[in-house]
Amino acid sequence: MYNALRYSHQLLAETIERFPAGHYIDATLGNGHDTAFILTRPNFAGTISAFDIQSEALESTRDLLRQKNLVDHPGLTLYKASHARIADTLTDIPVFHGAIYNLGYLPGGDHSVTTLAESTLTSLAQVRSKLVVKGRIILVIYYGHPGGLEEKNAILAELATWPQEQFQVLQYGFINQRNNPPLLVAVERLRDR
User: Fold this and answer.
1) Which residues contact 171 (CB under 8 A, 6 or more apart)?
2) Domain total for the chain?
3) Considering the entire predicted model, what is its pTM?
4) Is 67:77 a contact under the CB 8 Å cutoff?
5) Are the C-beta atoms of 26 and 50 separated by less than 8 Å?
6) Which helix (H) or strand (E) holds 48?
7) Residue 192's CB: how many other CB atoms inside 10 A?
């Protein structure tokens, strides 16, 4: 069985196969692994907008992309901004084909700087408003830190209200593992209104 992170990449790869020239959001850039994953898909010919509030995350990502000869990829734009600013920042991009979130704190960084329920819910609403039919929002929720459980519960409560006629929402995770194993939530738009 796949863990949450590996399954998130399988779902992301499927989405890129579906929309190779699409626009993707890495809403929580972190150390850049999701962005690098997207850029290295064999048929990827689209664009990525990647967001993080920490300079350390952007530098770590640039280092990773340099190692992979991807730092100057023409389809990539990095933003030092909260994922709650997607709508303000990407006004010229009419639709999104996929978005990925890794919620929690920056691995190897300051554990007191975490994603928060309020900004994540704001971000999800912004991505939802431009998500194409068959597009996906993929969230890997790490919640074993202060405030993490509140963020997880707020996200699950919100996504439970999204109409099933328009969205499929999948929850995937191990239930017999210690120490709050990450939870995967995947959303696919079925149709517009």
Assistant:
1) 156, 183, 184, 185
2) 1
3) 0.96
4) no
5) yes
6) strand 47-52
7) 8
